[in-house]
Amino acid sequence: MQSLSVKKTKPSIAIVGCGTVGSAMGKLLGLAGYRISGVATSKMETARRAAEIIGSGSYSDSPAEIAPGGEIVFITTPDDVIESACVEISEQAGFQQGAVVIHCSGALSSDVLASARACGAKVATIHPLQSFASVDQAVSLMPGSLCTIEGDETALLIVRKIVEDIGGVVMEITAEKKTLYHAAAVAASNYLVTLIHFALELDRAAGLDGDTALNALLPLIKGTLDNIGRQGIPNALTGPIARGDVGTVSAHLKAMEKDTPGLLPLYQCLGLHTVELAKAKGTIGQEKADTLIALLEPDK
Questions:
Q1: What is the distance between the alpha carbons of residues 182 and 162, in angstroms, rounded to a whole number?
Q2: Alpha-carbon torsion 206, 211, 216, 221, what sign?
Q3: Domains contained in the chain, number
Q4: Contact between 101 and 129 (Cβ < 8 Å)
Q5: Is residue 183 part of a domain?
Q6: What is the pLDDT of residues 42-91, one digit of tens each?
Q7: Rounded to the nearest 5°, which phi and psi values hold at 298?
Q8: Whether residue 5 has pLDDT greater than 50
Q9: Is 206's pLDDT higher than 70?
Q10: Is 179 inside any structural domain?
Q11: Residue 63 CA to chain centroid, in angstroms?
């Protein structure tokens, strides 16, 4: 097989796993001029629909049937079955010699594709640092999005080109630190949803209905994100802890202890971390910080 790094035409791509990420990557790559040789997933009807979306004429419910057609093979199954899917294909000699095998999990490293290495393939990962609710949304959001990559250096030559071709921006990481990177993404995206739910629960206890509360909070949330983008952290921090307003924080704690005791530990935990940010910003000194910490620390 000719080296992928020197081919004048773009290599063929097979996709195993046809959820939102797999279908989105397939469509993006197709739009970028790659030939999608085939798609596979556990259900034939799902594979057929994905093939229609992506523009591939070949689909199957057998990954080992589709994978040999790809000089590049994307395994975009759920995280828990990436390794077993790769093993299944490997055991059936389903990878071309010298193929590049890629998964798109943010939490897992390329090491879970070790069985493909044993077949003579090179392995890597691409994780778009973006939240895709649909294939069409992915196509619109990908340009300019960071894509974290790691893996075999020879595979990364191809992966960097793929990211460039779909409009992404490369960010490299080591396999050993990828789980921490993914935890950061979860904190920034998933836990932001949880944090906003926390605020909505407090508003509900204050007598506001959900829609009213959300509509009231969204401009504040967007303004805060804009401030972070413009001023960075900790400079974007505002509010009672940043001001050292012990009385306001104390009042919050008393109100929550009375009306929403189940939410109190989260407020305390976030407050303690916020004290450290306020110190870093320089708006409170150690004496005020110690007072706030004593107030926010859960009862021993």
A1: 21
A2: positive
A3: 2
A4: no
A5: no
A6: 999 999 999 999 988 899 999 999 999 999 999 999 999 999 999 999 99
A7: -60, 150
A8: no
A9: yes
A10: no
A11: 25
What phi and psi, each to the nearest 5 degrees, are found at residue 153?
A: -60, -40
If you search the block for the tokens 């294939």, which residue do you land on?
135
Does residue 78 lie within any of the structural domains? Answer: yes
DSSP class per residue in 178-212 = HHHHHHHHHHHTHHHHHHHHHHHHHHHHTT--HHH
Are the CB atoms for 96 and 121 separated by under 8 Å?
A: yes
pTM: 0.81
Ramachandran angles phi, psi of 118, nearest 5°: -65, -20
Single out the residue of 53, 160, 75, 178 nearest to residue 121, CA to CA.
Answer: 75
Sorted by sequence, the CB contacts under 8 Å of residue 272 that are 6+ apart come out as 293, 296, 297
Query: Burial level of 247, CB count in 10 A (0-12/13-18/19+)?
Result: exposed
- Does 221 lie in the same domain as 140? no
**C-beta separation of 36 from 24 below 8 A:** no
